[in-house]
Amino acid sequence: MVEPADWRHVTKVDPDKGMSEEKMRDIAVSGTDAVVVGGTQGVTREKVLSLLSSVDADVPVVVEPSNPASAVGAGDALLVPTVLNADTVDWVVGIHKEWARTEDVDWSRVVGEGYIVMNPDSAVGRLTGADTSLSPQEAAGYAEVADGLFDLPVVYVEYSGTFGDTEVIEAVADAVDDATVFYGGGVDGYDRAKEAARYADCIVVGDAVHEKGVDALRETVRGVDDARGV
Amino acid sequence: MVEPADWRHVTKVDPDKGMSEEKMRDIAVSGTDAVVVGGTQGVTREKVLSLLSSVDADVPVVVEPSNPASAVGAGDALLVPTVLNADTVDWVVGIHKEWARTEDVDWSRVVGEGYIVMNPDSAVGRLTGADTSLSPQEAAGYAEVADGLFDLPVVYVEYSGTFGDTEVIEAVADAVDDATVFYGGGVDGYDRAKEAARYADCIVVGDAVHEKGVDALRETVRGVDDARGV
């Protein structure tokens, strides 16, 4: 089983955007702790399997379906989001119930993630109708529920596409006892990686590797390392 | 900490209905494994504290607030429901987030319960707008989410006031790996206690003790014991 608690830097690759085999190999040795294959739109089994087949890495490669119905059994584990601040029950428990009803889920491969979606203009924000107007204290409240009531191993502050309010990240990190706090959104280089890593346990880099390449990714790894005094 | 996994029979006392000190003492030695103080309507701190103060029992006495905001720090633990099939996010995560935001919650005292509410005419059914038209497979899907994704220690099939569909209870019990399955609703004597105990791990008796008394409660304990060959 994968251990997200040990991760400090994660690279998220969007199968809808694609990634060359060479780049996937470079990512795997960039210093990142895990490769997450996932995205909100146009994620099909074929695209996910194609990406997974191109990785031959020592780092874990995990699949994160926005809807678990598009999940595949490949990869080292399945990260399954529940969007805590969604506006309908579908994204909290509904699609998960349907997934469990229609497939024979191997829960031992599932790592639950309590998402707090904070960017209303992101694909995930629009899709889930998330209440992104949360105060740091409200975000922290959701984080406590994810950690204390649901025992989710990961609490994920998702600003997808924009760099977040560090007060929110800090409040969430302070509220959580056991879960690992992921931060994602706008981490495009050394400075922002270092800044976000001051608060979150693990930084997720996604768009930057698609848009700027693996050199930029390595800079984010360096930022995280420096924030931790590695 | 209390261990719901060890419970086979639980007595639920509604603080809004009240219970004499003498009856509370009789309940505590009836053979029930725990006394749960909780109800959907009119539950105030004063009523809960009054009931708790009248119990001097070897069995655990726990508080189950329908809304955790009415929770008290008394009792041996706090059972906190999340209604998985509610029609709004409020009853799944919303009121819990507000609770965490406004109070300093001691999560080590909290036992999470994944409720599947099945009686549309019950107070909890009306309050939460639960989708009570679930097939056994859908109820089982929610149970898997509660058990596999959220790691809730208790999955609670709640028919509140009427005896349930044993196919639903059985499907839920079959779907769950780790959680303890509670069943509540219409258990008013020996036969129904024995029948429900064929499927669920733990039977909850509520109305019967208020309406029929402690003798009826003892009969339900005997029904559970016989179902288990004790």
TrEMBL record, chains A, B:
Which of this chain's residues are annotated to bind sn-glycerol 1-phosphate?
A: 12, 156-161, 186, 206-207
Q: Which keywords does this Swiss-Prot/TrEMBL entry list? A: Cytoplasm, Lipid biosynthesis, Lipid metabolism, Magnesium, Metal-binding, Phospholipid biosynthesis, Phospholipid metabolism, Transferase
Cellular component per GO, a single term: cytoplasm
Q: Which Gene3D superfamilies match?
A: FMN-linked oxidoreductases
Describe which pathway this protein belongs to, using the record's wording.
Membrane lipid metabolism; glycerophospholipid metabolism
Is-annotated flag, keyword Magnesium? yes
Q: Where are the transmembrane segments?
A: none
Cofactor needs: Mg(2+)
Residues given in the record as Mg(2+) binding sites: 14, 40
Predominant place of localization: cytoplasm
The family database entries (SUPFAM superfamilies) matched by this protein are listed as: FMN-linked oxidoreductases (SSF51395)
Biological processes per GO annotation: glycerophospholipid biosynthetic process
Compartment(s) where it occurs, according to its Swiss-Prot or TrEMBL record:
Cytoplasm
* UniProt GO MF annotations: heptaprenylglyceryl phosphate synthase activity; magnesium ion binding; phosphoglycerol geranylgeranyltransferase activity
Top EC category? transferase
Q: What is this enzyme's EC?
A: 2.5.1.41
Domain of life of the organism in this record?
Archaea
Q: What does this protein do?
A: Prenyltransferase that catalyzes the transfer of the geranylgeranyl moiety of geranylgeranyl diphosphate (GGPP) to the C3 hydroxyl of sn-glycerol-1-phosphate (G1P). This reaction is the first ether-bond-formation step in the biosynthesis of archaeal membrane lipids.
Family the UniProt entry places it in: Belongs to the GGGP/HepGP synthase family. Group I subfamily.
The identity of this protein, by name, is Geranylgeranylglyceryl phosphate synthase
- Name its species: Halorutilus salinus
